Automatic annotation (TrEMBL):
The lineage of its organism: Eukaryota, Metazoa, Chordata, Craniata, Vertebrata. Residues 4-121 form the Gamma-glutamylcyclotransferase AIG2-like domain. Pfam families: GGACT. This is Gamma-glutamylaminecyclotransferase. SUPFAM superfamilies: Gamma-glutamyl cyclotransferase-like. Its EC number is 4.3.2.8. It is an enzyme of class 4 (lyase).
């Protein structure tokens, strides 16, 4: 099992959450909520209004999201779904646990409440994205007015 931190359309209540609960794609178990220890720019970009965490540590905000444990099958699905490694790159990041629902001791945060999780961020983005507004929490129906376009609608 691996830990994955999702901050965009894969979170509960967001357009692609259905993939996280589709056991045909593998197993994903919600463990809790967290935020990146370091600040990162979270932008909404492209003609489909996709959320991207730019891999520029120290810029932007601590980004809020959800922590899951996933099996190998789900991790492979997520790599494909996220266009890894071309569009996003899966890297380990330190995530601060805000709320923990995970049962038992497996995978719990240390004394400081910090976990290492895989995160799909990107280093392969157009330079102008750095000038877009930065968010700390993504919601496809947020005040930004940039509605996410589902793949099946593209």
């Amino acid at each position: 099992m691996a830990r994955v931190f999702v901050y965009g359309t894969l979170k509960k209540g967001q357009p692609n959450y259905k993939h996280m609960i589709n056991t045909a794609k593998g197993l994903a178990k919600f463990q809790g909520r967290g935020r990146t220890v370091e600040k990162y720019p979270l932008v909404i970009a492209g003609k489909y209004n996709i959320p991207y965490m730019l891999n520029i540590p120290g810029a932007g905000h601590q980004v809020a999201g959800e922590i899951y444990t996933v099996d190998e099958q789900m991790l492979r699905f997520l790599d494909e779904f996220e266009g890894c490694p071309e569009m996003y790159q899966r890297t380990l990041m330190s995530i601060e646990v805000v709320e923990w629902e995970g049962k038992g001791t497996e995978g719990q945060a240390g004394d400081e409440g910090i976990l290492e999780c895989f995160v799909y961020s990107t280093t392969t983005y157009p330079p102008e994205w750095v000038g877009l507004p930065y968010y700390d929490n993504y919601d496809s129906l947020g005040k930004h007015g940039l509605a996410y376009v589902l793949r099946e609608s593209r």
